Here is the input.
Amino acid sequence: METRIFHPEKEHTAIAEAAAILSRGGLVGIPTETVYGLGADGLNEDAVRRIFEAKGRPQDNPLILHVPSADWLTRYCEDVPKVAYTLAERFWPGPLTMILRRKPVVPLRTTGGLDTVGVRCPAHAVTLAIIAAADVPIAAPSGNLSGRPSPTTAAHMIEDMSGRIDAIVDGGACRVGVESTIIDLTVTPPRLLRPGGLPLEALEEVLGEVQVDRAVREKLGEGEKPRAPGMKYRHYAPKAPVTVVTGSPQRSAAYILGQLTPSSGVICFDEFAPLYAGHEVRCLGPAEDKAAHSRAVFDALRTFDATDVTQIFAQCPDETGLGLAVSNRLKKAAGFHTVDAGSGLMIGLTGGTGAGKTSALRALEQLGGYILDCDALYHEMLRSDAPMRRAITEAFGDVFLPDGTLDRQKLGAVVFRNPAAMDRLNAIVYAHLVPEAARRAMGHDLVGFDAINLIESGMSSLCCRTVGITAPSEVRVKRIMARDGISEEYARMRIAAQKDEAFYHRSCTDVLENTADSPAAFEQQALQFFTRLIEEETTK
Ligand code: TXA
Ligand code: MG
Here is the structure.
C-alpha cells in the first residue's frame, strides 16, 4: 500500500481527504500535542482491527478514543462522574485521558474487551478538524510499531508505518512529546495508570488523593497484570540495553562517565554532553527543563537503533512534574534497570599557588569532605594506569623509562615547545583522569576535587559548585617566598605565569578570597564559607 503524506498547512484539501479515508474505514497517522497517533474510526470494528495489524499490537491492548470536546462523553460513556467534566474543563483539549465506563456503542475490539473506555480530547487543531469533518471518534494508539518508541514527528511515523497505512498527516513536531496522562475515574480514589504530559500534581489539585498504579514506578512481577494493559509491554526500547541512572544531575553524570566503554551510548542533559565526547550522545535539554526532556526523550531512544552502540546509559530527571512521565518512559525502555547515583555533593576547588587552597581543603575535610587531589591522582595514573600510559605512548612515542616511570625530560621536550602537543597531552590525561576521579567520588556524600585545571579538564561540570581560591598578589608573593625559600623576583614570575584573578571570577561559580592574616584564620573563613555553601546546596 502506498502511504500518502498530507501537509495541511500547504494543502487545503488535506483535512477533508484524511477525514474521507477515516470514514471509509482506512488508517491515518494523526498529529497530536503528545505523540503521533495511528487513527481509525473508533466505532468501526474492521478499521480498528487493521490498527492492531498495522502496529503489530496485541489485541488485548485497548485504544483511546479521541473526541473534539466533553460534549461527546455521553455518546460513548456510561455514568460519567461530575469530576470528569471538571477535569475536561481544566485540561481539555490537552494531554489527559480519562478511563470511564463504556457504552455498548463502542466495540469491544476498540477497548480490548474491557467494559471501560479511555477518552481524550487532543490539543491539535489539525486533528480536531479531522475529527469534526469525519464526525466519528478517532481510535488511536501511538503511531509506532509495537515495542518501538512513540513517534513525535511525521518522519518517525513514516519510518514505522510507511507502506502499512493509507496516509500520514504531517502536523509538525509534537509540542509535549510524551503520551497523555491516563487517569482511571471508575475507581475510588482515582488511579493514575500512566504518567504523561499532564503532571500528577495538576490532577491532585482537582481530585485530591490520586493513587499511583504500581506499574508506573516498578517492574511488575511475572504474571502480574497492570491496570493499563499497555504498561506491561517492554516498551519504547532501543535494541541496545539501557541503564537509567537516577540521582542529582552531577552525580548521575559522574556515574555514567565512570562506567562508559568505547561502544557505550549516552542520553544526557545538555550541560554534560562535552564529558562524553567521542561517544554516541543524545541530549535531553538542560537539566532543569523537564518540558524539553519530554519533547526529546522518544527521539533520543529511537535514534540509537541506527548506531552500533552496545549499551546505553541515561540520565533521568527527578519524578516531580513532567519528570514522572520522562523517568517512566526511560525506565520502561530499560526494563526498569535503574542505578541510583545518589545526591552527594561534589565541589571543585582551584586556585593559584600561595592563595590558600590547602587551608580551604582542610576546612572542607573538617566538614566530612573526601578530598581528591587530582595532581596526586595524575601522578599515580602515570605510574599505574595502563590505558592512559598506552595512549600517551601512542601519541608521543616511548616516553616511559625502563623502570616504568615517566621520562619527564623527553616528554617535556616535545610538549613545552609545541602548544598543539601540549593540548594533545592534556586531552589524553583529562580523558582518563576525569572518569577515574568520578569513579572515586562515588560512595562519598561530600567530595572536594582539588584540581589546578578544574575548568579546563571539564571536571567542573561534575561539580555543583566550583570555588576559585584567590588572594591579593602581594600576599601571595610573601607567602610563597617564605614557603619555598625563593626570591621575590622569582615568586612574582611564578605568579605571573599563572591564571589571573579575573579567570576565577569568570569561570567559577564562587570565589573565596583569602583576606585572613594567617593560614589558621583563613581555615576558619573557609569553614564558614563551605558550611554556608553546603547548606545552600542541600536545601535547594
Ligand atoms: O497521548 C496519547 O495518549 C497518545 C495519542 C496518540 O493520543 N495515544 C496513546 O495510545 O498513547 P496508546 O494506545 O499507545 O496507549 C494507550 C494506553 C495503553 O497503555 C492502554 O493499555 C491504555 O492506554 N488504555 C486504553 N484504554 C484503557 C482502558 N479502558 N483501561 C485501562 N487502560 C487503557
Ligand atoms: Mg503506545
Remarks:
- Residues 32, 34-35, 37, 61-64, 97, 99, 111, 114, 116-118, 120, 122, 140-142, 179-180, 182, 193-194, 227-231 surround threonylcarbamoyladenylate (ligand 1) (CB under 6 Å).
